[in-house]
Amino acid sequence: MVRCDPHIPEAEYRDNGDSGRSFVFSELAEGGISETGVSGTAVCHTEINGFPAVITEGTAESGESGTVTVFWSNGEKMFSLACRGIPAEEALKIAGSVQKIIRQ
Questions:
Q1: In what order do the strands lie in the sheet with 41-48?
Q2: pTM of the entire structure?
């Protein structure tokens, strides 16, 4: 399933099988990353394609465990990738595969 809103650049993927795997990719306003403490959440700093990135792993506000969120920039835009049922290593690979689309 892909859902797009013209006012909020976002796409959502949900596995229709039994895995419960899903992710939401979003483009954020500049300065849209905030590192606020959330109980039960681990925060890790890394890089994606040479740019700083932040990964959070832990319990979602809903109480659901197994959530991974990656925040990063490509030097022009800020992005987030919120995942359920996807390990942090795989979430980093997905985030690292994001490419700029150039309209001709």
A1: 10-14, 22-28, 78-84, 67-73, 51-58, 41-48
A2: 0.68
